[in-house]
Structure formats: C-alpha cells, structure tokens
Specification:
This protein has helices at 8-20, 28-32, 50-59, 62-72, 76-79. The protein is mostly helical. The termini are far apart.
Length: 101
C-alpha cells in the first residue's frame, strides 16, 4: 500500500481549488478534484482527498483563521468590481497571488 503525505499547504491549496471549481461541500472534493490529474500540478501525484482536508479544517485555530482573513481581506474590494460573468463569455477568471503560498 502506498502512503502519500500532504503538507498543510497542499491541503489549503486543495480547499481553495475546491472553492474555485464550485464544490459546495468538502465531500465534493473526492469527485471533482482528486481524480483530476491536471489539478495536481503542485508536484503531487494527486490532490488530498476530503478526509485529509477535514483534518486540516478541524485543526484550524482562531489565529489561523485570522491569518487567512488578513490575506484575503485586502483583495475583496478589488474583486467586488469585477465585471459580470456574461462579459467573460461564461468563464470566471481567478487570479491567485502565489507569493502568499
């Protein structure tokens, strides 16, 4: 049996990716992301599954949530002015700042 170890960063990246592809529930990660080999271009054979991301979510503390909020809060006003999806021909353009990763 093969064992794959995921860092907390891999798990956070998976959670962000699941939001971007429209997963409504964490369990949707197993169906929409884990089988996608293109999505695993983070140097992994495949992305962490739902049970791995659940472990991360359960271990987050208030300080961690404050850090995540500090990263995203300055970006919200910028993205609030994005044009509607209709002008993007049905595509949602997502620009994730990689220096924070």
């Amino acid at each position: 049996m093969k064992t794959i170890k995921y860092s907390p960063l891999h798990k956070v990246q998976t959670l962000v990716a699941s939001l971007l592809v429209g997963c409504q529930y964490n369990k949707d990660t197993n169906i929409r992301l884990v089988p996608d080999t293109v999505a695993a271009q983070l140097g992994l054979e495949r992305l962490p599954n739902q049970s791995q991301t659940n472990i991360l979510l359960q271990r987050l503390e208030d300080d961690n949530l404050t850090q995540l909020q500090a990263v995203h809060q300055p970006q919200l006003p910028y993205y609030a002015h994005c044009p509607s999806l209709g002008s993007w021909h049905g595509y949602l353009v997502v620009d994730v700042e990689m220096r924070a990763w």
